[in-house]
Structures are given as structure tokens and as C-alpha cells.
Design brief:
The complex is a heterodimer of chains A (236) and B (295). Chain A has 10 helices and 10 strands. By secondary structure, chain A is an alpha/beta fold. In chain B, a hairpin with a 2-residue loop joins strand 2 and strand 3. Classes of the chains: A alpha/beta (236), B mainly alpha (295). The structure holds adenosine-5'-triphosphate and magnesium ion.
Chain lengths: 236, 295
């Protein structure tokens, strides 16, 4: 079943046409990757799906409902959220308070406490640092926090914008393991990455964005074996 | 006992500035705008108290509380309405357009007060509160009320921001509006709440001024507004503890100037010069921090 359907999405920044009418979809339970070089329009795609940027034309359908133009906070309540590019944790709040913010739409205090414990068990490092302000965490810890915070709202669809950016190889592996873990608990994943080999390896399907348009699409396996993709994104 | 008088007087001026500066700084931090009409909310609060005190039961202390409550309610509603009507449509517009609009709102409120209440200064029949003596110093009861209420408000506000869900959402919105929306926070309602709190505090400031000197006029809020804005900038605009600290610092400076006869007439000039010096040394104010660059 299709969970997210993007049709002919077109986004402008002033006169710059950042997305030239792209279409793609994410099925329930899938991991789908959106690959693309710097400036291809990946972040723009993510933000316009979430309602943080307004599309000039086109539509976004989530769970059978047209969510085009809906404010972001309503979209989050429908069960979709995003780990934004560059983490964007609340640096003045502690780790614990950041996780509480992630549960902003949840009213049940007992459930929030339970969920936070669960996040701590996935990220023991966050438990150790729970009273530290997030601005003083390392980049890797901030990425863990951003992922944990997003999971606090129990999204049906989680979008991650370059979660491996700027991390050491060991941490990159850990990030991908955690994405697989979230997926195994029933979360559908839309992943934006430049790390093509790792993301294609865990993806059911992938799309390649070039200059604001979808250039290729296929299963993770197909794309990782394609010569064009190898040349452009896998360094050989 | 001159020293204690200067100290108490400085605190008194400072906490009133803080009631106003908190509104400036919270609105700046959360809505990212300078609300230059904020001072005029104080004026509206003052006229509300004037209207109720002019009614027959004026000098009854119980009725005075009704007047205060009405001032708080009227200012809160006015702040929220101004935000909805004048500022909300400009979300995402250039900061200059918002600033000009705020100045326009300020003139509008002053002109309306001139049409309704005329331009002559009015006497407000606030209750006579007298003085109390503590040891060798005698302090006005109005000063004690001002200090106690303001300090209680500042503590409550700090606790609210730190420990309530809405307070934390305010911090989140001020830090990163987009990320806050991704938490499911409705930024518009957080901005509305911010204007409501700031305007309620402005009403209290209006009350405290009237307790000190019971006269109201159209530009009643102008000078306090500018002074409190100065205090907010000295403390670090956008920072709540900064607004409190900056206000106390400014109040103390003003009180010291007042206590030294030859320089007293120049106190405003001295205060604004200190603003300029602090901004030269520390452009972000005492407690303001530089925005962390996003990765
Ligand atoms: N706020 C903006 N104003 C103007 N142009 C923008 C803005 N944001 C993005 N762009 C432009 O839109 C295009 C797509 O940007 P986007 O951030 O979506 O790329 P991306 O694929 O996420 O790149 P990266 O991998 O570097 O994050 C780029 O050419 C960029 O310069
Ligand atoms: Mg990007």
C-alpha cells in the first residue's frame, strides 16, 4: 500500500526552480532512498513534503489524504516527521528536554516516560548525557538525539535528511543500524543520503535526483549495480 | 540611609522596566520582531485603570483590584488582537516592513487614546497607600508592592519557561522555528501566548507607574517603553534572564543618577550612552549569545 505519494512537485526559490515537477512514492513498510549530489534538491523535497516550504504546484498525498499546503504541525500529528539536515537539536535544552519536545503531541505522561526509557535503551549514550544541554554534545551524539527525538512522536513515516553527514565511519555504521532497527519496529523510512553504497544496501527502492528532477529509479540492488550510478555516486 | 534609599529606588525602577523588557525580549526571541507598540500597551493599561477608578466606588481597595484585573485583561486581549491583525499577516515579510507596521500600531494606539481621552493629563484616583518604616528607613507601600509582585512574576515566568510544556515550546520556537514545527508545535499559537504574556506584564507596569505617580496621558508608555527596550538590549535581547538583569542594571544607574543632584537632569542621556558603550564592548548584550551557526 502506498503511504506517501508525491506528484509533479514543483518548488521555486524566487526565480530558481529547485524542483522541476518530481514524482515518487513510498510504500508502507519500505525503506526508500533519495540519492543526489549537493544542490540536487533533496532537502527541498523533504521540507516541502513536511510543509516547511510551499510548493508552487503538485501534490503530496499521505495515507490517502491530500496534505499539500497543510501546516507542518498538523502533518506531524498525522504520523510523519523528519530528522532534519544538520540535526537541529535544541541546543539550550538538555537531552532529556529535547526528547520531551519530541513527544510534544503526546499527552499521556506515563507513555512519554516509557518511550524515553526506550530511546535510552537504543542510545545508551543519551542516557549518560540526559542532563547535558544538547549544544555541548558531539556531532554524533547530536545525530543520535535528533533521531531519538523524532522517534518520540511514533511516526509511521520517518524521513531522515543525510543522517550520516560528518560522522566517522564507525558512527555511520551505527546510524544505519539504527535506521534498520526503527524500520524493524514498523516504521516506514524515507532516507536522503549522499552515502550511496550504504543507503542502497538497506533500501527496498531508491530514486536519484539530479538538478531538481528524478533521473533514475529502481530497487536498491538495481541501482547499486547500475554503471551510471556507480560512476556518479559510488566512486567508480 | 541615603545608600539604602538609592538601592531600593533603583530596584523599584528596575523591576518595572523588567515587566516591560520581558515583553520586548520574549516577542523578539520568539516572533523575531521588535514590537515598538509595546510601550503603548502600558498606556492602554493605565487608561483602563483610570476609567475604573473614575467610577464612583473608586477609592474602595476592593474595587481597585477589579480595575487592575480589567487592565490586565484589556491589555492581554489588545496584545493578542494587535498580533493577529497587524503582525501575523506579515509573517515571512521583511523585518523592515514589520518594524514600520509596529511603529504604525504605536501611533494608532496613541492617536486613539487622544481621540477617546483628549490630550490633557488626567489624575487617576488610585488608593493612597502611605509609607512604612523599617528601622531608620521609610519605604512607600507602593514600592513594596511593586517589588514583591514583580519579583514573584519574574520567578513564576522563569519557572514557567523552564518547566512547563508551553514554556519549553517557547524556547524551541525561539531557537529553531522549523525544527519546532517538526515536533508538532503550532508556532502561531506559541506567538499568540507570547504576546498575551508580554501584554499582561505591560499592564502591571502601567499599574506600578500609576502607584508612583497617579497621572495618565497619551504618551504615558513612550519613555518607559524606550527605557525598557534599552534594558532588554543591554541584557541581551531575546534572553529572559538578560531582560531582568539589564533592567535592574538600568534601574540602578537611573537611581544613582537621581541621587547625585548635578547629574540628575542628564540621567536619560547617561543611560543611553551606557547602552552604546555596552553594545560597543559586547554587541550581544550582557547575557545574549551569538546565534550558533547551523552545520
Ligand atoms: N533558501 C534558499 N534560497 C534560495 N535557494 C535555495 C534555498 N535553499 C536551497 N536553494 C537552492 O535550491 C537547490 C536545492 O537545494 P537543496 O538544499 O534542496 O539541495 P540538497 O540536495 O539538499 O543539497 P545538499 O546535499 O548539499 O544538502 C540548490 O541549488 C540551492 O542552492
Ligand atoms: Mg540537503
Amino acid at each position: 500500500m502506498t503511504l506517501l505519494k508525491v506528484e509533479n512537485l514543483e518548488v521555486y526559490y524566487g526565480v530558481i526552480r529547485a524542483l522541476k515537477g518530481i514524482s515518487f512514492e513510498v510504500g508502507e513498510g519500505e525503506i526508500v532512498t533519495l540519492l543526489g549530489a549537493n544542490g540536487a534538491g533533496k532537502t527541498t523535497t523533504m521540507q516541502s513534503i513536511m510543509g516547511l516550504i510551499h510548493a508552487r504546484s503538485g501534490s503530496v498525498t499521505y495515507d490517502g489524504k491530500n496534505i499539500t499546503g497543510l501546516p507542518s504541525h498538523k502533518i506531524v500529528r498525522m504520523g510523519m516527521t523528519q530528522v532534519p539536515e544538520g540535526r537541529r537539536v535544541f541546543s539550550e535544552l538538555t537531552v532529556y528536554e529535547n526528547l520531551l519536545m519530541g513527544a510534544y503531541i503526546e499527552k499521556d505522561k506515563a507513555k512519554i516516560r516509557h518511550d524515553i526509557e526506550e530511546i535510552y535503551s537504543v542510545f545508551p549514550r543519551l542516557d549518560e548525557r540526559k542532563n547535558q544541554v544538547a549544544g555541548t554534545l558531539s556531532g554524533g551524539e547530536q545525530q543520535m538525539l535528533a533521531m531519538g527525538r523524532a522517534m518520540m512522536s511514533h511516526p509511521k513515516l520517518l524521513m531522515l535528511d543525510e543522517p550520516s553527514m560528518g560522522l566517522s565511519p564507525l558512527l555511520v555504521d551505527q546510524v544505519f543500524d539504527i535506521i534498520k532497527h526503527f524500520h524493524s519496529t514498523g516504521t516506514t523510512i524515507l532516507l536522503v543520503e549522499q552515502n550511496a553504497s550504504k543507503s542502497l544496501a538497506i533500501s527496498d527502492r531508491a530514486y536519484v535526483l539530479e538538478n531538481g528532477a528524478i533521473a533514475y529509479s529502481g530497487t536498491g540492488k538495481e541501482l547499486s549495480e547500475s554503471d551510471d550510478i556507480k560512476k556518479a555516486y559510488l566512486g567508480g | 540611609m541615603e545608600f539604602i534609599n538609592t538601592l531600593v529606588n533603583g530596584l523599584n525602577i528596575g523591576v518595572i522596566y523588567a515587566m516591560i523588557a520581558l515583553g520586548y525580549t520574549m516577542v523578539y526571541g520568539i516572533a523575531k520582531m521588535l514590537n515598538f507598540a509595546h510601550g503603548d500597551i502600558i498606556m492602554v493599561g493605565g487608561y483602563t485603570i483610570y476609567v475604573f477608578c473614575a467610577m464612583k466606588a473608586a477609592s474602595s481597595p476592593a474595587f481597585f483590584f477589579v480595575a487592575i484585573a480589567m487592565a490586565v485583561i484589556v491589555c492581554t486581549l489588545l496584545g493578542v488582537i494587535v498580533e493577529k491583525v497587524a503582525y501575523k499577516p506579515l509573517r515571512g515579510a521583511s523585518p523592515l516592513a514589520v518594524l514600520i507596521t509596529a511603529i504604525g500600531v504605536s501611533y494608532l494606539l496613541q492617536s486613539l487614546s487622544q481621540i477617546i481621552f483628549k490630550s490633557a493629563t488626567k489624575f487617576v484616583s488610585v488608593p493612597e497607600l502611605g509609607k512604612v518604616s523599617i528601622g531608620a528607613v521609610s519605604i512607600k507601600v507602593s514600592t513594596i508592592i511593586t517589588l514583591v509582585v514583580s519579583i514573584a512574576v519574574m520567578i513564576s515566568l522563569s519557572l514557567f519557561v523552564k518547566y512547563s510544556k508551553t514554556g519549553r515550546a517557547m524556547i524551541a520556537v525561539s531557537e529553531d522555528r522549523g525544527a519546532a514545527q517538526l515536533m508538532g508545535i503550532n508556532v502561531n499559537s506559541i506567538i499568540t501566548i507570547t504576546f498575551a504574556i508580554g501584554s499582561a506584564l505591560a499592564a502591571l507596569a502601567g499599574l506600578f507607574y500609576l502607584l508612583q505617580s497617579p497621572y495618565i496621558y497619551n504618551t504615558f508608555g513612550a519613555m518607559p517603553g524606550i527605557k525598557a527596550f534599552t534594558a532588554a538590549v543591554i541584557g541581551g535581547i531575546g534572553s529572559i534572564p538578560g531582560a531582568m538583569l539589564g533592567s535592574i542594571v538600568l534601574g540602578m544607574i537611573e537611581s544613582i543618577c537621581d541621587s547625585i543632584a548635578p547629574i540628575a537632569p542628564y540621567k536619560d542621556a547617561i543611560e543611553f550612552s551606557i547602552l552604546i558603550i555596552i553594545l560597543l564592548v559586547r554587541p550581544t548584550g550582557i547575557l545574549g549569545k551569538k546565534r550558533r551557526e547551523k552545520v
